[in-house]
């Protein structure tokens, strides 16, 4: 259950990647607008699901929050329990940022590419302990064995290498590595998208158990809306670098307001032939515009079935059309 305190506050986060041209004298000719002035907050103990189609900027958002990418602009404020105050992550660097990484971790999407094939399972999980000086000798060994037990792996796996594990087991190793430094906030970057459906359920259940046990807060990035509905407290819908809508899980799925959210939800299959046959499927026309040259006004207007003239002329206001607390429902659409 989420607490009242906001753990992470993101305001006007922007991440542009420059496009350079020239062989000897390079110059910037354009920007790829991967993340374009987005704002959201996550309360302590909460899971915020971030959904959208491939290439919309979900992973870039997660990495910019963690400062793996240094944002072009914007603010990322994180509540530091030791200081009893918020710290601005975008202004931290060097040793201060390295110490802060104990509290903010990431679980990567690819369980095959995110583990060093030359390191044993135990060395991978124990690396954060060495980097941050958290354990040595016998204490180090016991901590690695404890982490393996926590994620459902036997301690004797510590001497094995990544190629000896299945995809689901590798993702468990990645989760154990993220937990090693006892963080309070974890970015889950599509942690189940590369796994079989039955294994996905096991990993989702494990993440929920760990959240309950250690009081973790998640930013859960995914494109599978059914997975997000299961694990998230609130859901943010992203399109072409911008957030279109944020609402509580039940509110968003039962009362979607943005036309893009409605189109996404209409694509989720319902395991009931009678209901499925009566449901209206919303087919979006055209292709996703390039983030090099996003449309003016609302970035969704080129594919929106209810767009009017103002949609192509002015940015829609980001506003709360719901109530307060859990009833908050934020949307950016001229037609709502």
Q: State the helical fraction.
A: 25-40%
Main structural class: alpha/beta
Which range does the strand content fall in?
25-35%
The top-level CATH class of the domain at 6-103 and 183-284 is Alpha Beta
Spatially, the strands of the biggest sheet line up as: 6-7-8-3-9-10-12-11
The biggest sheet amounts to: 8 strands, mixed
CATH topology of the domain at 6-103 and 183-284: Rossmann fold
Overall CATH architecture of the domain at 6-103 and 183-284: 3-Layer(aba) Sandwich
As residue ranges, the low-confidence spans are: none
What does this structure look like?
This protein is α/β, with parallel strands linked by helices. It has a domain at 6-103 and 183-284: P-loop containing nucleotide triphosphate hydrolases (Rossmann fold, 3-Layer(aba) Sandwich). It contains 11 helices and 12 strands. A hairpin with a 2-residue loop joins strand 9 and strand 10 (242-248). Helix 5 runs parallel beside helix 6. The longest helix has 18 residues, at 197-214.
Provide a compact summary of the structure:
The protein is an alpha/beta fold and 336 residues long.
State the main characteristics.
11 helices; four-stranded antiparallel beta sheet; single chain; eight-stranded mixed beta sheet; alpha/beta; Rossmann fold; 336 residues; 12 strands; 31% helix
Give the SSE map.
Elements: E1 6-21, E2 27-43, E3 47-51, H1 58-65, E4 73-80, E5 85-88, H2 94-100, E6 104-107, H3 121-131, H4 137-150, H5 167-179, E7 185-189, H6 197-214, E8 217-222, H7 225-231, E9 234-239, E10 242-248, H8 249-254, H9 259-266, H10 273-278, H11 309-313, E11 318-320, E12 329-332
